[in-house]
């Protein structure tokens, strides 16, 4: 079982710079997480920013709270301070194909040697008569998971849809 949710606020500045505040929520039975809450403040810049494509990077700091399932030897709550580095690419309004991908890396400042990574990829292809096919792939990895948990988790979906 896996549940994700995110709130993202961006403030756009001159010369394609931006700042963002993100609240990210994640639970996953595979990684024995009841809830991981990450609160992130970052600054970034668009390297490409057109009406069809954008590519940006950002870096910042995050505060993470983790509540693990009851597991002997694991802490009830883990609080950590992490850095964030993120790359994001979005290609849209390019005929029949659109793509989105991002990679966020969280090196921990408070837990020596721990690094987490979250990556997402989505592609959509427009078919005749307003049908489309879409594929997504989400991948999470934690190089120091708690005892008994898997270090990585992924979800992929492929779907056929129709738009009005």
Question: In words, what does this structure look like?
Answer:
The chain has strands spanning 2-12, 17-28, 33-49, 53-68, 77-94, 97-107, 115-126, 131-142, 152-162. It is mostly beta strands and 164 residues long. A nine-stranded antiparallel sheet has the order 1-2-3-4-5-6-7-8-9, with no helix packed on it. The mean pLDDT is 92.
Concise account of the structure shown:
The protein is an all-beta fold.
What is the overall silhouette? globular
**Arrangement of strands in the largest sheet:** 1-2-3-4-5-6-7-8-9
| Radius of gyration, taken over Cα atoms and rounded to an integer in Å | 18 Å
- Could you estimate the helical fraction of the residues in percent? under 10%
Strand composition percent: over 45%
| Order of helix and strand elements from N to C terminus | EEEEEEEEE
Largest sheet: 9 strands, antiparallel
Question: Oligomeric status of the shown chains?
Answer: single chain
Mean pLDDT: 92
Cα separation of the termini: 31 Å
Number of helices: 0
Helical/strand content category:
mainly beta
Could you tell me the number of beta strands? 9
């Amino acid at each position: 079982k896996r549940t994700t949710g995110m709130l993202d606020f961006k403030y756009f500045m001159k010369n394609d710079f931006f700042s963002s505040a993100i609240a990210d929520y994640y639970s996953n039975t595979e990684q024995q997480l009841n809830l991981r809450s990450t609160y992130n403040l970052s600054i970034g810049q668009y390297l490409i920013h057109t009406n069809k494509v954008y590519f940006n990077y950002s870096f910042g700091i995050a505060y993470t709270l983790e509540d693990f399932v009851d597991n002997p030897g694991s802490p009830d709550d883990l609080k950590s301070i992490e850095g964030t580095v993120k790359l994001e690419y979005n290609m849209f309004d390019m005929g029949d194909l659109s793509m989105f991908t991002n990679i966020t890396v969280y090196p921990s400042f408070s837990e020596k040697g721990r690094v987490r990574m979250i990556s997402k990829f989505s592609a959509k292809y427009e078919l005749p008569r307003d049908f489309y096919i879409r594929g997504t792939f989400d991948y999470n990895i934690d190089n120091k998971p708690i005892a008994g948990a898997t270090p990585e988790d992924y979800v992929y979906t492929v779907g056929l849809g129709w738009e009005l």
